[in-house]
Amino acid sequence: MGGPCPEGPGPDGTCAQRRPPCAPHPTLRAVRGRFALLAFGLALALVVALSSGVRIDSIGINMIDPGPLFGAHAGFAPGGNCATCHTAHGAGSVAWLDAFLGGNDMSGQCITCHAFEGDPLLAHNRAFEQRPDLGPIACNQCHREHDGVGATLTRLTNEQCASCHSDGFATFPTDHPAFPAKFPHFQESAIKFDHVSHVKVHFEDPKVADRAPTSCADCHDVVSADNAVLPMGFAETCDGCHGTQIAQRDMVVLRLPVFDANGFDRDAVRDACGPTLDEIERLEEAMAAMAAGKEPAEQGAEETEYESVSSDEPTPVSSYLLEVAGDDTESYSTPMQDLVMAMAEEGTAPLASLVDDRLGEGMAAKLFAGLNPDVAKRLACAWAANQEYELPADPEMGGWFGDYLELRYQPTGHADPVVKAWIETALLIAADGDANAIALRDGVIDAKEGPGACIKCHAVTAAGDAAALTVDWRFRAAVDRPYDHYSHRAHLSLVQAGSTAMESTSMGCRFCHRLDDNAPFAASFDDFDPSTFAANFKGIQAETCAQCHIEGEVRQDCQLCHRYHLPATFKPSMMGADLYQE
Amino acid sequence: MRSVRSEHLIYWVVLVAIFAVLTIDIRWSADSLGEPLRLTGYLLYGVMFLLAFLNVRKRLSMIPLGRASFWLLLHSLGGVFAIALYWLHAPILWPSGVYEQAIAALVYGVTATGMFGYVIQRVYPARLTQTGLEVIYERIPGEIARIRSDAEAMVIDCTTTTGSDTLARHYFETFDWYFRRPRFAFSYLFGGQRGLQWVHQQWHTVGRYLSAQESAFLDRLTELGYEKTRLDVHYALQSAMKSWLLVHVPLSAALLVMATWHLILVHVYAL
Question: Scanning A26, A106, B88, B234, which has the fewest C-beta atoms within 10 Å of its C-beta?
Fold first, then answer.
């Protein structure tokens, strides 16, 4: 303004050489700062957009992609529903803050579906007394998700095991501890099958040559073999030689004992049962005499001195039910005669009532299943008349029958439910220490007679701390070493188990399972203590496995034989139980 | 100089050793019950902030925080360590999620620009020295304007003195374009000499048509062209040395934001 204008004025009168106003030119550092701020803002905007729920999934673009889920899990997070496992997802800022500061309970989400036989968060699902310092272990320490549909979530590495088991393991032959001497026969077998006596004695007997198995596979189901090669059922194995023996082992449940005096009311017996055959005969004789014009003979027989038809003691069953001493006539006479009289009047009802009162509701239905009330009544009538009951016909089909002075039960075959019920009941009630119950139990499990035949094959054990003994009716797989696993299936073809003769020890099952002739197998069951079990097989040595499981040959990683978890299952909610709840 | 390089070599060897140990440890940790992702993630995040601290160090030059060259060395070591850690942390070159892709792109962008900056800081100063010229970057436009002015004045003088406009016409068809602004920057960035060749070619093209008197003017004009070439080299290389940070620093800022958010996400979702 007002200064010189060397070029002179322009057409409009203003200076032709204008000096543009001074405009500060930002330094490169300043420009860089602005760019950095812009980039910072853009990144922040992207973050805010993400956190505010902007989604472009619908057009096939994943905003955040942590990787595909394992196939079996993918169905539980349909449409990218992360909240199935990540509880903070979509739950608001408070939940985010809580998760950020307090952490995620990822394992808690796993165990909403998965369950184990033990605490799922403890190492190996159980507490170890030797290691009280071990804390909870999160599932995702081993099971890493988002590794793809075909990922192997359950595969562990030796190094993962070595995190705790720090003894060091490089190869199986050099570093694996020696197997215990009894390995793997620690657990008492449910069936007292003496392999030594059968293989070396009975199967060699020419009399059973046509029935004796020639291969282990004749009795063990190699087709479905896995951790155990289960024996086939009784019908496929034992029945050929032992099937007819069971029906011969009658059980005497009730017996008419000796009485010092006849406590039965003759009129009452006659009312309940009608006249006896003797009375009918005498009546017929009297009528014939009268018809012939003669005087009937005197009825002196009734006046003769009472002599009990039985000379035996009552059975332990009746002693227990009536709570009387079996060797004391005075003790049992009246209760026993009352019971017989009641049975004569009402059949099985009094007996059932007595059993249910003594053993619990419903027990009579199990213990006397199939007992015909009429048979019981006729038997009781004969006994009340101080007579032996004459069996109309032999019980060819088995079941209940009266035989002279006894009520007997003949097993119908293997696994007879009535015999099983009597054995189980006898073992149960004996736990109370009652002398009659103990006598009943000892009689029932006496292998020499009656239903004790069952106990010749089925182990009886004192289970845990319980006082009662239990019978192992069924073969049970090994449960004492739940972390061990051995695949028989993978080995059976190697030793040609299905086609190898039982005698062979160079191939077949006996390649590993060597018989121990000196083991006190049968005697080890006598004390009912499973811990004293002595298998009639020698322990398997690690060297047997090390023939193949060596570096460069066959797998030898920990997980091949050892499992981390106790047996796993799904929670009921996974089974659709919720669908049926109202 | 030799001892400085040996010292640097030791640092690099130490860095490689640390990384090797870390790799083995992480591999072992991945195989056992460790959480290598957490370790590498936090380590990477820490290294990122350490790298960013170089910028703070520049701004706080009044505080004795060690020599700038040492910080630059630390920055270089840390940068290489960071990209190696990144591949340990996310062992895939290109993730699938958009957010993860953004982080990967930023990581690669920052790394690429950083490596570019490192290389040119090592190579370009020597090449600038080779020009035999020292000039302040901001003064280059003024110097070019001066050369242009001198050239124009000389061409007019040539025409006036010799009475021939051959050189003048040649100037306005060729050299005028060349002297208007810096040229052939791309060639100089990659070590080319295209500007020099261009000037030489123009000299050779018109030289045969000029008289001896005009040739003297042409030689002086060519000298000005060579001087402009040296300025162009300075302009191109100094521009690159100053402007790569325009990309590197903003990308780094964005990466820090994204990495922080990633850390939050991991804590909210997975830890």
Answer: A26
